[in-house]
Amino acid sequence: MQNPRLVFGFVVALYLLVFPYHPGLRSPNELCRLWQTRALVDHGKISINDTIAEYGMVGDLSVVNGVLYPSKAPLLSFVAAPVYAVMKLFGPVTDVTQVYWSRLFLLILPTLAMLVFLRRFLLVYLSPLIADTVIATYALGTMAFAYSQLFFSHQLTAVLLFMAFYAAWRTLSQQWKQWGWAVSGAFSGAVVATEYTGALGVVCLAIYAAYAVVTATQGTGQQKAMALAKVGGLVLLGSAPFLGGLMAYHQSAFGHPLTSGYKFLNDPGYQEWHVGGFLGIRYPDPSAFALSFFSPLRGLFTLSPFLLLAFGGLRKLFREQRALFVFTVTLLLGNAYFTSSFTYSSWGWTTGPRHLTPLMPFLLLPVGLALQWLLEAKTFDGRVGFGIAAGLCVSSVLVDGALAFVNYIPDSHSTALFGLAVPLFRAGYLPPTVLMFLKAPNGFAGTLAILLLVGAAAIIGLRLAVGRAREVAVAAALVVLVHVGLLAGLTKHHDADLQNVEFLKKVWMTPPSS
């Protein structure tokens, strides 16, 4: 059970198998980008008026003098253009096939590739058992799974931001030459061109790099400043193509290199969310903070409770890796401020607090340090603590993984697991999978997806519990029961829950009869 290949095989199988998409929802966040992709290839334009005339209206738009554009940062639309162009060579393209292949090449495969680099990073500080556990739990038990399965920008931003960090980390450790800073800059520029709010993570990365460079440079203040200036120049050089392209896009579409589409939102109802502050980021709201982290419907720690272990690992990170501690805390505080200051109600129909997705990979090191400390503890309390931590990992996979099978979760629901996912699955509305393209019965394919998820959770639990004291397994099982039981108890089954279930049945891509 110590061989990680089995659990990672389950991870890859699930990423490639499930396909949560329902054409009847006309998902605005996805289709506005993909309509721009079609406009680029079919008409050579960044505006999407012609595409809308051909294929129908979508949401999440900006309008300038009657000309329509997606309100999103543009990189995801542009990198999807080659995928769409190749698809056209093989015949007509539907929104279903375009969504699938675009997700596969731009979200799913990059996420799986990132796991390789994430493992290399974690293995420097953690044992293979702990590193593999937190990576598998991250892959299936956080929003990484959900947003690799949606053509949203959040998971690609997480991938790009981690790779920007990885390049900087490798360069700081002198495993890469100085050109590594230009690589980090290129990934950082791509982050901002993919998601405007990703700039927050880039700023935190800059603080980490500056702190690490200054503390590692021997000599006078002038020498430290020169070293920092050299690094900054290389980073700017690497980021220039992406930032320059983004500003050129803004100039062409919105009349100024620093003006984004949020200034020209087509739907008046969305405009108030972005008024005041920076892109709508104002002063913190305690309610938004509490809901983002602890809401029964989409709270970060409610759905992925194993991430709470990060707070236990920060002390050890402070003692052993001061620069990484500064980076992690800065990133955590910055994201906490952001999620508390932006309009919570604007996140609608999503799994978890989606804007926190880029934060997830950077919590894994302190999570792993906490797990490793508990594993090495020889006392009864330490063994129970390790069992609790193991249970949090298993429960995160079962809960957040199941929600990724649905992935379109109405705001008015009480809880997503027992209020939405379980009722749908019980009624035969099982997770859509790519096997539908092969005309496989969805009863078989959807059940296979559920069994793979349960199997992955079981493997994670067994790898942590087998060969250890009985109290580890008992504590882990109790934690899973308590977490799942709390979600069941918080489910209201009120009118909104029932109506939302019936609505999703009407638009479900693979109903029981398929």
What is the end-to-end distance?
37 Å
Which regions contain 5 or more consecutive residues with pLDDT less than 50? none
**Mean pLDDT over the full residue set:** 92
By oligomeric state, this entry counts as single chain
Number of domains: 1
Content-based structural category: mainly alpha
SSE pattern, N- to C-terminal: HHHEEHHHHHHHHHHHHHHHHHHHH
* Alpha-carbon Rg, integer: 23 Å
Number of helices: 23
How many β-strand stretches?
2
Name the overall outline. globular
Question: Approximately how much helix is present in the residues?
Answer: 55-70%
Please describe the biggest sheet, giving its number of strands, its sense, and whether it closes into a barrel: 2 strands, antiparallel
Strand order of the largest sheet: 1-2
- Strand fraction equals under 5%
Task: Please provide a written account of the structure.
The chain has 514 residues and is mainly alpha-helical. Helix content is 66%, strand content 2%. It contains 23 helices and 2 strands. The radius of gyration is 23 Å and the shape is globular.
SSE map:
Layout: H1 5-17, H2 28-43, H3 49-55, E1 61-64, E2 67-70, H4 75-79, H5 81-88, H6 95-122, H7 128-141, H8 143-148, H9 154-172, H10 180-194, H11 199-216, H12 221-254, H13 268-271, H14 286-294, H15 300-303, H16 309-320, H17 322-341, H18 364-376, H19 380-404, H20 417-426, H21 442-465, H22 470-490, H23 495-507
Antiparallel strand pairs: 1-2
Helix pairs in contact: 1-21, 2-3, 2-5, 6-7, 6-9, 7-18, 7-19, 7-21, 9-10, 9-11, 10-12, 11-12, 11-17, 14-17, 16-17, 16-18, 18-19, 19-21, 19-22, 20-23, 21-22
